[in-house]
Amino acid sequence: MQRAIELEYKGQILRGMEHMPERKEGERVPAVILYHGFTGTKLEPHRIFLKICLALEGMGIACFRFDFLGSGESDGNFEEMTVSGEIAEAGAILDLIKGDPRVDPERVTLLGMSLGGLVASVLAGERAQDVHKLVLLAPAGEMYLLIKDMVDGVLAVPDLQVYDFNGNLIGRPFAEDLKTLNVFERSKGYQGDVMIVHGTKDPTVPYQVSLAYQAQSYEGRALVHLIEDADHTFNKTLWEQDVIGKICDFLR
Q1: pLDDT 10s digits, 55-96
Q2: Whether the model pTM is above 0.85
Q3: Could you tell me the CATH number of the domain that includes residue 179?
Q4: Where are the beta strands (DSSP E) in 99-199?
Q5: Backbone phi, then psi, for 140, in 5-degree steps?
Q6: Residue 125 near residue 186, CB atoms below 8 Å
């Protein structure tokens, strides 16, 4: 069953969807929380987040996917968004799901795509005891280095408060915050099961970033699946099916 849900966070509303499998009265089921990427939404391209949720719901796993503030249908403006802010919002969502009486609080998995993968990895690193498993799809762990010229260019202009990124206004606080993040170090605290999926022809976040996660954050413990020729958001049905299949196998 799919229905719309809301979470109030610091006076604003995060809007999302929940997918709850059939369950016996009083039964607690495992759950997955999905975090979307930069300029993305709770659906993500070609509705891949919805398709992941439907597949997992069919396995008896509840799924929850929200728009971060300033994205999708949630309150706020995109120019107010920072990565640290999204990490905090992700934590509030985790609190909500772990407190849901239908959910087994010992079996809550985080799944993040792109910037959402960065968010999920840091949150898991800092709240390891609250996370059962971790799934990262093309995680943008080195986001500052990937857009360094743009960030440094913004910060070099003292009076520039917002800038236009493909129709999304980005605030100066985003650039200031991003430059301070040590993602791989903050992700190290998570010692549970990790799976990373990345396309070998990702033009946005090179797959070598996932290999760096493996080496620097997870010391070789993570399962890394490279999908040959796939792009950043797995924009072919064959790639999408591969991703969903790997997620289902990992969480089965």
Answers
A1: 999 999 999 999 999 999 999 999 999 999 999 999 999 999
A2: yes
A3: 3.40.50.1820
A4: 103-113, 133-137, 162-165, 168-171, 193-199
A5: -90, 55
A6: yes
> Beta-carbon neighbour count of residue 233 at 10 Å?
21
The per-residue pLDDT for range 163-204, each reduced to its tens digit, is: 898 899 999 999 999 999 999 999 999 999 999 999 999 999
Report the distance separating Cα 19 and Cα 91, nearest Å.
Answer: 19
Domain range for 19 is 2-251
Give the three-state DSSP class for 184: helix
202: phi then psi, degrees, rounded to nearest 5: -75, 115
Q: What does the CA dihedral 252, 239, 237, 21 come to, rounded to 10 degrees?
A: 20
Count of domains for the chain: 1
**CA diameter of the chain:** 59
Q: How many CB atoms are closer than 10 A to CB 166?
A: 6
